[in-house]
C-alpha cells in the first residue's frame, strides 16, 4: 500500500516587488517565510539574485540535482524539505533511472535553479505574519519537454500492486498535461500535495522574457540509464519479445462467393458427394448387368397365400439390387466357430440345469450380491470438489500442493454482490447513491457483529479474516474509502467515494483500514469503460485465512462462520436488500461443497419413482394380453417384473457394497445415475430372454424351451453385456476421480446384473412359466383359475403379435425398396459426415452451475460474477530453487528493473500483458525481487536504513522515528532516527547488486518492513507469503512467487485457454532461462482435464471400439460381421457427438465417459439383429427380414422403449448435470441407436452382410413359422 507523492514545497523570502523581471541568475522564490496550518512550509515570494552555496551545501545539492552547479535559488532548509519529500517518489521510480533522473530534475529546477525567474512566475502571494509567502506560481515548460518527460515515466510499473507508478505519482494521467496538472494541484489541509498551486504552462507569449524550461530529457531507452523492458517497452532492445505470441490466425476457410466455409467442412462435403456418386454409379452398373432380373420391389417374405408365391418371392429376393450370396440355388454356409459351438453347448446345458434346479440356482446366485451388500456398512459419499474433479497425480494437483506447502494456500473467499435491476429494456441504473451506501453500512455492521459457534466458543470475522499487516481485515468494499466508518461517510458523503474512484492510489483519505489502495474495478461491477460512477453493482469480498490441512481447527472455525454467514444473508440481509429494490447473490468458500451435500439426497424420490415406473413397464411388456380377461391374472408378469427390478437393485447395491468395503467412496453421480443405467440395461436382457422363451414351440417341454431360448439369445446377450462392461472398464482409466469411480461401480454392477440375469432371472422365468402352466394367479401363486380350452391363446398376445407383424409385413418390406435403401444410406452417411463437422465445434469445459441443484442460491451468484466481475483470477508464476548468490545469474534473469536482462521472466510477463487477448495476462507481475532490490538501493534513502548499532531503522514516518498522535492519527518527528543511515553505500554494492551475505541479511528486514509514505516498498503484507525462507541461508530460495492477474474470464473456454497460455509461456521461459517455473491459479486443478480432453476422448473411444471389435470377433468368429458392427457403432458415436454440439453439451470427463459408455450400450441395438442375421438361412435380403421379424420387436420393445422409460425419469432430477449429461445424452443415444439398429443396419446387412453361420443349405431352409408368427 502506498500513498502518493507529496508534491514538494519550495520556499522563498519576501518579494521586493509584485512582479519578477525574468533574468538569468535571478530567483522568483528564496527562503522559507511561514507555514500552513497543517505544518507545510511556504516559500518566500522574493525576487533576489541567486546565491553561491558553500562547498558542503553545493555537494549536497549536486548529489540530488547534478544539473545544478554554481549559484542556487534555495536555502539549506528548502533543500532539506525537498530532499525529505522526494524520498516518497524515489521508491516508485528508482527501477527506471532515466525516469527518476528526469523527474528529480523537474523538481530541482523549480526549487534550486539559479535561473528560476526565467521559467517561474509567482502569481499569487499570501501574507503570513506580515510576510508575503507564495500561494501560486506559473511553471513554464516546453511542450516537447513535457511530452518527453511523460514518455520516460508513463510505463514505469509499481509491482507491489500490479499497476503503473503513474497511478500513484500522476493520478493515472494519460498525457503529460494531466500529469503536470496533478503534480501542481494545491493540497487541502493534512492531505498530500503541494502547499501552493503550481500551474504548468507551455505558452509564454504573454510573458516577455520568459524562457520555458527545456533542459535535457533522458529517454527511458537510454543505455546509460538502463531502464528495464518492463518499465520501458519502447526501448530498442525491447521491441520484440523472445517468446512467440499465441497463434491467433483464423482456421483455414474456403470462400464461394458470399459463402465461407471451413476447409474441413468443405472437404467433408466433397468426400460425401464423391461417395454418394460412387454408390449411385455402383447401383446403376449392377442394375444394368442384371436388368432383366431386377424387380422394382421385392415381395414381402411370408406374405403369400401359397408355397408357389413364396418360392417366387424367394427368387425375387435373390435377384434384387443387393449382392447375393451366390447365383446358384444352393449355398454352403460357413460352419459355426469353436466359440459359437462352445457357447451353444454351454447355454444349452446351463438352461437345462437351471430348469431342473431353479431353487438351487436362485439361492446360490443371490448369495453373492447379498454378501457384498454387507460392505454398505462402510458406505461414504465424497462431495469435496477437489476430490471429485482433480486427479491426485495430475500436474495441477502437484503444483497446487507445492504452492500450498511452500508458500500459502490461496485465501478463502466470502462474497456478496448487490446490483440494481434493469427495467423496460434500459440499462440498469447506477447503484452508487446515498441510500445504497447506507444500506452497505448496515450490512457491514451485521457481518461484523456475526458470531458463529464452534466447539463451545464464538467465532467472529475478525478472528479468521486475512490481515496483511496483522491489524485490520482486508475487506474489499466501497466502504473502505471511508475506512468502514459511517461517521466519515456522514462527514464527506457520496462525493468522496466518487472522488476516490479516480484517485484511489493518490489520496491518503481513500486508503483502506489496512492501508492499501482499493481498486474500484474490484469492488464495483456493471460499469462501462472506466465510468465507475455508473456502476450497477457493489461487490463485497471478505478474504479469510486458509490452511493446508482441510480438516484443521482453523479451517473448521472458518467453515462454522461461513455457514452462519450464509444463514445471516438468507434470513436478514436478503430481505433488507430486496426491500430497497436491489438484487443480492452470495457465496462462501464452503458453499459449493455444502450444496453438493444437499443435492446428494435431493433426488431420492426421483429414484423411487423411476423404479416404480420401470417396474410397471416391465410388468406390462413381459405379460400377455389373452383373449379372455380372466386369464389376464395368469398371463401377467407382475411378479416376474418385480423380481427382475429387485435383481437390478441387488446388482447395484452389491457393486456399491464391494467398493465401499475396500474403501472407495461413492459419488453423487453413482447414486443418481447407476440405478437408472443398470435398470435400463438389465430390463433389455430380461425382455429378450422372456420373448425368446415365448418364441419356442409350445409343444416342447419347459427344459427344452429354456435351453433353446438361451442358445438363441445367450450369445448376443453375452456379447452385449461384455461390450458394456468393457466400455465401462475402459472408461475407468480416465484419471478424473468422479468419472473413474463411476465407471468402476457401473462395470461391476452391469457384470453382476448379467450374471443374475442368466442365473437368478432364468430361474425366476422357470418358476413363472410353471405357475402359468398350472393356471396359478400372478402375485398370488397359491390360487388357481379353472381354465377352458380358449383360455390360452397360444401366443404372445395381440400386443406383441401386432408389433412382430409390423416388423415382418411393413417395416421389412419398406426397407427392401432400392430407392429406400439409397435414401437410407445417403441420409445416415450424410449425418455421420455432418456430425464429424459438428464435433469439431465441441467446446471443452463443465459449467459450474450445471453441477449444482437448479434451486441453489449459487446459480444467481455465478450469473452475477460473469456479468459484473471486471477482474480476473490471480495468477502466480512460481520459481523453484532461486539462487541469489553473487555467482548466479538468476537475479538478472528474473528481475525487471535496471540492469536486468531484457528477456527476464518479469520483463516477459510485462510484455505479455501488452497483448492480453492472447496471453490472458492483465498486468505486469508484482515482484518481491524488484521491490527488494529497490528497497536496498542507496538511492531509496528512506527505505533500507540502520541505526548506529547496525539494527533495522524504519522510515521517518513510522515509530519509533516519530511519535503517533492517537487522536489525530498523525506521526510527528521524534528525533530518534536522526542518526540512521542507508544500509549500503554505492561502493559497497557490486554494480548495484547485493552480495550473497548482504542479500541473506537484509531479506528478512525487507519482509518485515511496513510500507508507508516515506518508503512504499516495504514487503510486509504484500510479500509475506511470496517466499519460502526455509533453508534460504544456503543461498537458495526453494520457492518464490510473482503475482499478476488473468484477464476477466467469463466462459469455460476462457479458463481453458488462459491456463494453456500460461503453461505455454512458463514452459518457454523455463527452457530459455534454464529454470523451473510453473504458473498457478486457484482454478487450474479443475480445468487441467480440459487441456487434453480431446486426446483423452479420442483415445478412449478408439480403445473401446477396438475392444468391442475383438469381443465381437471372438464371439462371432467373423471379421465381416465385426467390421459391420464396428462401422455402425462408430457412426452412432459420431452422431451423438454431433447432437452434443447442437445442444451445446461441453466435452469433459462426464461426456467422455458417456461417449465411451454409448459404445457399450449401442452394441445392444446392433448385436441382436446381426446375430439373428448370421444364424438365419437364405440370401442377405431374406436373412435381414428374418432378423427384423425375430429380433426387431424385441429390440424395439425390450431395448428402445425400456431405455426410454429409464432415461425419461432423469429429466426430473433436480441437478442440471443429470438433465444435460444423462437425460439429453442418453435420450439422443437411444434414438440414434434405435434408428441405426432398426433402419440403417438391416439395409447395410442386406447389401453387404456376412454369410450365414449355419450347416444347412439354403434350399432346405424355410423361415421358421414359430419365429415369424410369435415375434
From TrEMBL:
It is found in: Endomembrane system. NCBIfam families: 2A060601. This is SSD domain-containing protein. GO terms for molecular function: lipid transporter activity; sterol binding. The chain crosses the membrane at residues 263-285, 357-377, 601-620, 640-661, 673-693, 713-733, 745-767, 819-839, 1097-1116, 1123-1145, 1151-1175, 1187-1213, 1225-1247. Residues 603-767 form the SSD domain. It holds the Pfam family Sterol-sensing. Residues 297-316 are annotated as: Disordered. Its main location: membrane. Belongs to the patched family. GO terms for biological process: cholesterol metabolic process; sterol transport. PANTHER family: NPC INTRACELLULAR CHOLESTEROL TRANSPORTER 1. GO terms for cellular component: endomembrane system; membrane. Keywords: Cholesterol metabolism, Disulfide bond, Glycoprotein, Lipid metabolism, Lipid transport, Membrane, Signal, Steroid metabolism, Sterol metabolism, Transmembrane, Transmembrane helix, Transport. It is a multi-pass membrane protein.
Amino acid at each position: 500500500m502506498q500513498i502518493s507523492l507529496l508534491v514538494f514545497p519550495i520556499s522563498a523570502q519576501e518579494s521586493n516587488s509584485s512582479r519578477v523581471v525574468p533574468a538569468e541568475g535571478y530567483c522568483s522564490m528564496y527562503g522559507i517565510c511561514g507555514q500552513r496550518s497543517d505544518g507545510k512550509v511556504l516559500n518566500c515570494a522574493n525576487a533576489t539574485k541567486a546565491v553561491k552555496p558553500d562547498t558542503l551545501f553545493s555537494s549536497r545539492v549536486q548529489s540530488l540535482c547534478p544539473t545544478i552547479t554554481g549559484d542556487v535559488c534555495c536555502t539549506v532548509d528548502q533543500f532539506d524539505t525537498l530532499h525529505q519529500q522526494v524520498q516518497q517518489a524515489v521508491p516508485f521510480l528508482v527501477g527506471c533511472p532515466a525516469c527518476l533522473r528526469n523527474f528529480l530534475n523537474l523538481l530541482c529546477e523549480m526549487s534550486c535553479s539559479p535561473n528560476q525567474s526565467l521559467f517561474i512566475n509567482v502569481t499569487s502571494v499570501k501574507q503570513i505574519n506580515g510576510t508575503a509567502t507564495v500561494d501560486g506560481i506559473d511553471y513554464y515548460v516546453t511542450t516537447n519537454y513535457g511530452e518527453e518527460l511523460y514518455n520516460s515515466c508513463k510505463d514505469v510499473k509499481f509491482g507491489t500492486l500490479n499497476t503503473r507508478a503513474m497511478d500513484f505519482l500522476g493520478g493515472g494521467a494519460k498525457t503529460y498535461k494531466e500529469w503536470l496538472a496533478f503534480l501542481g494541484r494545491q493540497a487541502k489541509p493534512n492531505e498530500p500535495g503541494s502547499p501552493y498551486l503550481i500551474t504548468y504552462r507551455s505558452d509564454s507569449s504573454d510573458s516577455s522574457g520568459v524562457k520555458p524550461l527545456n533542459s535535457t530529457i533522458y529517454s527511458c531507452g537510454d543505455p546509460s540509464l538502463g531502464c528495464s523492458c518492463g518499465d520501458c517497452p519502447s526501448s530498442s532492445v525491447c521491441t520484440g519479445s523472445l517468446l512467440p505470441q499465441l497463434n491467433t490466425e483464423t482456421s483455414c476457410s474456403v470462400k464461394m462467393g458470399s459463402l465461407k466455409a471451413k476447409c474441413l467442412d468443405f472437404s467433408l462435403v466433397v468426400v460425401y458427394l464423391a461417395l454418394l456418386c460412387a454408390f449411385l454409379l455402383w447401383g446403376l452398373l449392377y442394375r444394368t448387368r442384371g436388368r432383366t432380373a431386377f424387380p422394382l420391389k421385392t415381395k414381402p417374405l411370408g406374405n403369400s397365400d401359397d408355397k408357389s408365391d413364396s418360392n417366387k418371392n424367394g427368387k425375387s429376393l435373390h435377384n434384387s439390387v443387393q449382392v447375393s450370396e451366390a447365383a446358384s440355388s444352393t449355398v454352403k454356409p460357413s460352419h459355426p466357430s469353436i466359440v459359437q459351438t462352445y457357447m451353444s453347448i454351454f447355454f444349452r446345458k446351463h438352461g437345462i440345469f437351471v430348469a431342473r434346479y431353479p431353487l438351487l440356482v436362485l439361492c446360490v446366485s443371490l448369495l453373492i450380491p447379498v454378501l457384498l451388500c454387507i460392505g454398505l456398512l462402510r458406505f461414504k459419499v465424497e462431495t469435496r470438489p477437489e476430490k471429485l474433479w482433480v486427479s491426485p497425480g495430475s500436474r495441477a494437483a502437484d503444483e497446487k500442493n507445492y504452492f500450498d506447502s511452500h508458500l500459502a494456500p490461496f485465501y478463502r473467499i466470502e462474497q456478496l454482490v448487490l446490483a440494481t435491476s434493469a427495467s423496460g429494456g434500459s440499462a440498469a441504473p447506477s447503484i452508487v447513491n446515498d441510500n445504497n451506501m447506507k444500506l452497505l453500512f448496515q450490512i457491514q455492521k451485521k457481518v461484523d457483529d456475526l458470531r458463529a459457534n464452534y466447539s463451545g466458543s464464538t467465532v467472529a470475522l475478525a478472528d479468521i479474516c486475512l490481515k496483511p499487516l496483522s491489524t485490520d481485515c482486508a475487506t474489499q468494499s466501497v466502504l473502505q474509502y471511508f475506512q468502514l466508518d459511517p461517521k466519515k461517510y456522514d462527514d464527506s458523503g457520496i462525493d468522496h467515494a466518487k472522488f476516490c474512484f479516480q484517485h484511489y492510489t493518490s489520496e491518503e483519505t481513500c486508503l483502506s483500514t489496512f492501508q492499501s489502495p482499493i481498486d474500484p474495478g474490484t469492488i464495483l461491477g456493471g460499469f462501462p469503460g472506466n465510468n465507475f460512477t455508473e456502476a450497477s453493482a457493489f461487490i463485497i469480498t471478505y478474504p479469510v485465512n486458509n490452511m493446508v490441512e482441510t480438516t484443521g481447527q482453523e479451517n473448521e472455525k472458518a467453515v462454522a462462520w461461513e455457514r452462519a454467514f450464509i444463514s445471516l444473508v438468507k434470513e436478514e440481509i436478503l430481505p433488507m436488500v430486496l426491500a430497497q429494490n436491489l438484487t443480492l447473490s452470495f457465496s462462501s468458500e464452503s458453499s459449493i461443497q455444502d450444496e453438493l451435500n444437499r443435492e446428494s439426497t435431493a433426488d431420492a424420490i426421483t429414484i423411487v419413482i423411476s423404479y416404480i415406473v420401470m417396474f410397471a413397464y416391465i410388468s406390462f411388456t413381459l405379460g400377455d394380453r389373452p383373449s379372455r380377461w380372466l386369464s389376464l391374472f395368469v398371463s401377467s408378469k407382475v411378479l416376474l417384473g418385480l423380481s427382475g427390478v429387485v435383481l437390478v437393485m441387488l446388482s447395484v447395491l452389491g457393486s456399491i457394497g464391494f467398493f465401499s468395503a475396500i474403501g472407495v467412496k461413492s459419488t453423487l453421480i453413482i447414486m443418481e445415475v447407476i440405478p437408472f443405467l443398470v435398470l435400463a440395461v438389465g430390463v433389455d436382457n430380461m425382455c429378450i430372454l422372456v420373448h425368446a422363451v415365448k418364441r419356442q414351440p409350445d409343444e416342447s417341454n419347459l427344459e427344452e424351451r429354456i435351453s433353446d431360448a438361451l442358445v438363441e439369445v445367450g450369445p448376443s446377450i453375452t456379447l452385449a453385456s461384455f461390450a458394456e462392461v468393457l466400455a465401462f472398464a475402459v472408461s475407468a482409466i480416465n484419471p478424473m476421480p468422479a468419472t473413474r469411480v463411476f465407471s468402476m461401480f457401473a462395470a461391476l454392477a452391469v457384470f453382476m446384473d448379467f450374471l443374475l440375469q442368466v442365473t437368478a432371472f432364468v430361474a425366476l422365468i422357470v418358476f413363472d412359466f410353471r405357475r402359468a402352466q398350472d393356471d396359478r394367479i400372478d402375485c398370488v401363486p397359491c390360487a388357481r383359475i379353472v381354465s377352458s380350452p380358449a383360455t390360452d391363446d397360444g401366443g404372445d398376445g395381440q400386443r406383441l403379435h401386432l408389433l412382430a407383424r409390423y416388423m415382418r409385413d411393413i417395416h421389412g418390406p419398406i426397407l427392401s425398396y432400392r430407392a429406400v435403401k439409397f435414401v437410407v444410406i445417403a441420409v445416415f452417411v450424410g449425418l455421420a459426415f455432418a456430425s464429424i463437422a459438428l464435433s469439431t465445434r465441441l467446446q471443452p469445459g463443465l459449467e459450474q452451475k450445471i453441477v449444482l441443484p437448479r434451486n441453489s442460491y449459487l446459480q444467481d451468484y455465478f450469473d452475477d460474477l460473469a456479468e459484473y466481475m471486471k477482474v480476473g483470477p490471480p495468477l502466480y508464476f512460481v520459481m523453484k530453487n532461486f539462487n541469489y548468490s553473487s555467482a548466479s545469474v538468476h537475479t538478472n534473469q528474473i528481475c525487471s528493473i535496471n540492469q536486468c536482462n531484457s528477456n527476464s521472466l518479469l520483463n516477459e510477463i510485462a510484455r505479455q500483458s501488452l497483448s492480453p487477448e492472447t496471453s490472458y495476462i492483465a498486468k505486469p507481475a508484482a515482484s518481491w525481487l524488484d521491490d527488494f532490490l529497490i528497497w536496498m538501493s542507496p538511492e531509496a534513502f528512506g527505505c533500507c536504513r540502520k541505526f548506529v548499532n547496525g539494527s533495522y531503522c524504519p522510515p521517518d514516518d513510522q515509530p519509533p522515528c516519530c511519535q503517533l498522535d492517537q487522536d489525530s492519527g498523525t506521526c510527528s518527528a521524534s528525533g530518534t532516527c536522526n542518526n540512521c543511515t542507508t544500509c549500503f553505500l554505492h561502493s559497497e554494492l557490486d554494480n548495484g547488486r547485493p552480495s550473497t551475505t548482504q542479500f541473506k541479511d537484509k531479506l528478512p528486514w525487507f519482509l518485515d518492513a511496513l510500507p508507508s509514505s516515506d518508503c512504499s516498498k516495504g514487503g510486509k503484507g504484500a510479500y509475506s507469503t511470496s517466499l519460502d525462507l526455509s533453508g534460504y541461508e544456503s543461498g537458495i530460495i526453494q520457492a518464490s512467487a510473482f503475482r499478476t492477474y488473468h484477464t476477466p474470464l467469463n466462459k469455460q473456454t476462457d479458463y481453458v485457454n488462459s491456463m494453456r497460455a500460461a503453461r505455454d509461456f512458463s514452459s518457454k521461459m523455463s527452457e530459455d532461462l534454464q529454470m523451473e517455473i510453473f504458473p498457478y491459479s486457484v482454478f487450474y486443478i479443475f480445468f487441467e482435464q480440459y487441456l487434453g480432453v480431446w486426446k483423452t476422448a479420442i483415445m478412449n473411444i478408439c480403445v473401446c471400439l477396438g475392444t468391442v471389435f475383438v469381443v465381437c470377433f471372438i464371439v462371432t468368429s467373423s471379421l465381416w460381421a465385426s467390421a459391420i458392427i464396428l462401422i455402425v457403432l462408430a457412426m452412432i458415436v459420431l452422431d451423438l457427438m454431433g447432437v452434443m454440439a447442437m445442444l451445446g453439451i461441453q466435452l469433459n470427463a462426464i461426456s467422455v465417459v458417456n461417449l465411451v459408455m454409448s459404445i457399450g450400450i449401442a452394441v445392444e441395438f446392433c448385436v441382436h439383429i446381426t446375430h439373428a442375421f448370421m444364424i438365419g438361412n437364405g440370401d442377405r435380403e431374406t436373412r435381414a427380414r428374418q432378423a427384423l421379424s425375430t429380433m426387431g420387436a424385441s429390440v424395439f420393445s425390450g431395448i428402445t422403449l425400456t431405455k426410454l422409460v429409464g432415461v425419461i425419469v432423469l429429466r426430473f432430477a433436480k441437478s442440471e448435470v443429470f438433465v444435460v449429461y444423462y437425460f439429453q445424452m442418453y435420450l439422443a443415444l437411444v434414438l440414434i441407436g434405435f434408428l441405426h439398429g432398426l433402419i440403417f443396419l438391416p439395409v447395410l446387412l442386406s447389401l453387404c452382410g456376412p454369410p450365414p453361420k449355419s450347416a444347412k443349405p439354403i434350399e432346405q431352409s424355410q423361415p421358421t413359422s414359430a419365429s415369424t408368427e410369435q415375434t
